[in-house]
Write a structure and sequence with these properties.
26% helix, globular, Nuclear Transport Factor 2, Chain: A, six-stranded mixed sheet, alpha+beta, 44% strand
Length: 129
């Protein structure tokens, strides 16, 4: 059953998502991604289209931004609901020398919201002078 405020549920999922990325923790991310989820990078020359398991393997090989003391910078830009069982989140974050924009589609099933697809792009982070 849905809570009275599904925004709170989505924000909680997103907090776990951001935590999992910052700490490169595939166990956290496994809980927020649907088993059938897709991971798609749209950057020309760096295109990727992976399953959830392939993506979690990538995370396991990543050096966590937290381990180098990288400042954490992530935020939800928007949440849009398409009925009771579908939501779209646009988020951005800066890590590993890149600024990312994520388009995340979430579905609600088995009493929880989970990311069904992650389609993203990135640009190189501009060094501050």
């Amino acid at each position: 059953m849905h809570k009275l405020n599904p925004y709170e549920d989505i924000i909680s999922v997103m907090q776990s998502y951001f935590d999992g990325l910052y700490h490169a923790d595939s166990k956290i991310l496994a809980n927020v991604f649907h088993p059938d989820a897709r991971y798609v990078n749209t950057v020309v020359g760096d295109y990727m289209n992976f399953s959830r398991l392939e993506y979690l393997d990538i995370i396991d090989q990543r050096t966590p931004p937290a381990s180098s003391g990288e400042l954490r910078n992530d935020q939800i830009l928007s949440i849009v609901f398409g009925g009771l069982h579908m939501a779209f989140v646009m988020a951005e974050m800066t890590m590993m020398g890149r600024k990312y924009i994520d388009f995340l589609t979430l579905t609600f099933d088995e009493n929880s919201w989970r990311i069904m697809s992650k389609v993203f792009t990135y640009t190189l982070k501009q060094e501050e002078v």
